[in-house]
Design a protein that fits this description.
Helices cover 37% and strands 14% of the residues. The two termini are 22 Å apart. β1, α1 and β2 form a beta-alpha-beta unit. Bound molecules: ligand FNR. The site of ligand FNR has 13 residues, from α1.
């Protein structure tokens, strides 16, 4: 069995984040071929290209963590119809310095939850544009717009609704298939 390392970024910095609950569920429902680890960005300063000649330790650690994984999963809320500023800041760090973009050729997928009826759809479209520019091959389908209702996912990542649990398990199985397919034609060291 080939195991692929997947780093996941949770777009929310809130302690009670519903997207963190979703992340816990996805980790538990992932197939054994995916080794999941969180890539934290909470300690990054606000990016400026003034740092490009000398990244601070937190940004080096962040870039190293991305270099150590073969694929990236974004689990993000929608804030004001886009992704939270902290996540965009992290992506800007990852994309630089010029020529050292951490996302180039790295397969990715996007998912998110919100109490709203369209479950982060607008934020996800915005993120997809950013990832396209960053040259990350993205899983196009299945899309996953999860409408969060009270108790849907516990703090421990237990999903109370069987249909949602099956959907999330299938999403992770599809992500595994996508990663294996992309890496078979675009090996990380090519
Ligand atoms: C929101 N929320 C929200 N929801 C949504 O569906 N579309 C939106 O554009 C916004 N905008 C927005 C802006 C800001 C600044 C906040 C704090 C919240 C509500 C949001 O979905 C809800 O707070 C979720 O709990 C956010 O997910 P996390 O941070 O708990 O993972």
């Amino acid at each position: 069995m080939t195991v692929h390392k997947v780093g996941y970024l949770i777009g929310s910095l809130a302690k009670g984040s519903i997207n963190r609950k979703l992340a816990k569920a996805l980790v538990q429902l992932a197939p054994p071929e995916l080794e999941m680890s969180e890539v934290s960005f909470k300690d990054l300063p606000l990016y400026s290209y003034d740092y490009d000649t000398d990244f601070p330790p937190s940004a080096r650690a962040f870039k190293d963590a991305l270099a150590a994984v073969e694929a990236v999963l974004f689990i993000t809320p929608e804030y004001n119809r886009s992704i939270p500023g902290g996540l965009k800041n992290a992506i800007d760090w990852a994309s630089r310095p010029y020529g050292k973009n951490s996302f180039t050729r790295k397969p990715s997928a996007v998912i998110g939850t919100s109490p709203g009826a369209i479950g982060t759809a607008v934020a996800q479209q915005s993120l997809r544009s950013v990832l396209s520019f960053c040259n990350s091959p993205q899983m196009n389908a299945p899309e996953a717009y999860i409408r969060f209702t009270p108790g849907l996912i516990s703090d421990d990542g237990e999903v109370s609704n069987e249909e949602t649990e099956d959907f999330l398990r299938n999403y992770m199985t599809e992500f595994h298939t996508f990663i294996a397919r992309v890496l078979s034609v675009l090996p990380p060291d090519a």
